[in-house]
Amino acid sequence: GIGHPPFENYEQQSVQRMVLAKHGGVFARITYQDVMNGIMASPDYTQAEKASFMNAFIQVNNHLWRQVMTINFFDTVKELKIPVFFFLGRHDYNCPFEIAEKYLAGVRAPVKDIVWFENSGHWPNLEEPALYQEKLIAIKKKVLELENAPKNNSQKKTPVKNDAEAEEESADIGNDIHPLKNYIFYLHGRIIEEQGPDAVSPEYGRYFYRDIIQALAKNGAEVISEPRPRGTDPLEYARKIASQIKSLLKAGVPPGRILVLGASKGAGIAVLLSAILENPQLKFVLLAICNREMAAYWKKNDIRLWGKILYIYDSEDRVAGSCKPFPDILKGPGLKEYRELELKMGLGHGILYAPHREWLEPALQWLERK
Fold first, then answer.
1. Before 6, cis peptide (omega within 30)?
2. pLDDT (tens digit, 9 = 90+) per residue, 272-308?
3. Residues 349/319, Cβ–Cβ less than 8 Å
4. Which of 59, 61, 110, 309 has the highest count of CB atoms within 10 angstroms of its CB?
5. What is the DSSP-derived secondary structure letter of residue 197?
């Protein structure tokens, strides 16, 4: 036997790859023989190059395999300053697509996306060549449009301002809209309205508003947020954000690239926003909002959830708990997907006061998922 991975040499690797191919983990439509036939028939190689191909392939693997096994991009490449696109075959377990998904979710890049090939394994360029070429051309066009788009930096809002600027500033998306970017609307809890961005609760401590915004932006998303004025009317504010999201959609941003993340009162505004927009493809993450009082309000006003919803709460929260006891709110005709995540951090309603990875990572993954 060859033992457990990681494998130390090409001989072990080749056995593993052959077994994997036999069980459908390398190809969806073709075989290794089809790959070799393509190489042998190619006009791009001389006869001498064709004859030496396999020997060169083996020699390269033997000399570089140990070095390759020491590389961990999760630790060494955490940021790229260029657009990043992963072409992934849905049947590829040669280089498992789950790892690529996880890496892309964490790496910072100005633009990033996964291009899926549903009928391919490790070689989408050979198994779906027409679609592969089509996607390459489309990405080239989009990236060139992105590079050549007029910039209006004077009107672009920064995620976090000092206190004086923050109180005057609206949650403006500006004119610098790119269809390939991700957009996150962060709607904070009520205490920021009452005390400003440096709010401190006697029960839960400091509200790390700026840190949350910076954490949400770590993967290159454009974060739109502002400290709302004291006593903000939730419905009026939801209408304001709805108009901004409509502007993004009109500019060509796909709804799947837009995430609304609301915390406590902000989550209540997000629920209203979901009902106003009635778009089943928009994504929402709601933190700690469901309780009897809110459920009664939603039922009285016939408010229903639309979109793809991830709801997160802490098991010790005395303010808000699961939404499942209130099924009326979950019955919207445009509710594409609904999931609940119960955290057991013991922080109660305080989970929303800081960018805890327990809710931050699922929220960012919710934006990245297809």
1. yes
2. 999 999 999 999 999 999 999 999 999 999 999 999 9
3. yes
4. 309
5. T
